[in-house]
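Team,

Forwarding the record for the chain on the shared tracking sheet. I've put the sequence and predicted structure together so nobody has to dig through attachments.
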Amino acid sequence: MRAELDKIRQEATAALNSATDLAALEQVSIKYLSRKGAVAGLFKLLGQASAEDRPAFGQALNDLKAELEALEAARKIALTPKSKGSSIDTTLPGRAQWIGSYHPLTLVMREITDIFGSMGFRVADGPEIELVKYNFDMLNTPAWHPSRDESDTIYLPNGFVVRTETSPVQVRTMEKQDPPIRIISPGRVYRRDRPDATHSPMFHQCEGLYVDKGVTMAELKGTLLSFYRALFGQQTKLRFRPHFFPFTEPSAEVDVTCPFCKGEGCRICKNTGWLEMGGCGMVDPNVLAGVGYDTEIYTGFAFGLGIDRIAMLRFGIQNIRLLTDSDVRFLRQFSGITPR
């Protein structure tokens, strides 16, 4: 048995050393070191050894296997093709690590809250999974209104919806607090919209509410004009166009002069000189009465604007889907930009 062991050692060592490439080395390894190879076959001879010789022969077999495996590993390193040079040029300056930055929506949202904060508005928040009661009923939305259709709103079991606007925050705040109230409620809202360059089933709104004694439409217009001038520049003009919203009366659409052409007309504003920025109006007395306010004493105004739309205008973003795609190439453009 010792003679057989020495014979395989010599043959295997010679075969491993004579292998000229990795493929040949693999064949030698299979022949001698695999589970069915020559070395494994020697272990079967242990049963034929005497009880006295068996320990020494077993140790010799283990030593042989370890010796041949070490030689195989060394030959593999020697036969592995070497690169012609280091792939790292140590003379080049190091690459700076990209540090995360504010998302464009965060930049705009912080700017909006700062501007309204300077006018005395505080930020209020509410749930995104909302009761139909708050999302529609207490906002004076009639049963026949299109916004209640399942084609527009995502309904959940047990009288819940995924909120379609942040207006429910206004109702919840009025339920808990007596006037005066001056709040904004930025946040995510959801609609059954088919995604495209200008529509998304999830987007961001900021709605505002001011309720006190003697609040007028003139104050509403002055508040929004001050906001948009802070946002787009002091040259900005604002106009109201009559509209209908269930929770305000009278209601209006808000247009501002295009910040790109200064009202002269361009591709962005479709040569009208104006951009539609949201809706507003005086809070409907039914909404105030629904939360227990005396409509003979208190009046208020409400407004809503699209945060995504403002971000797209501010940064020249052509596709709203970029705001939620988490594309690092897109997000890197905002590195170093901080909220105003």
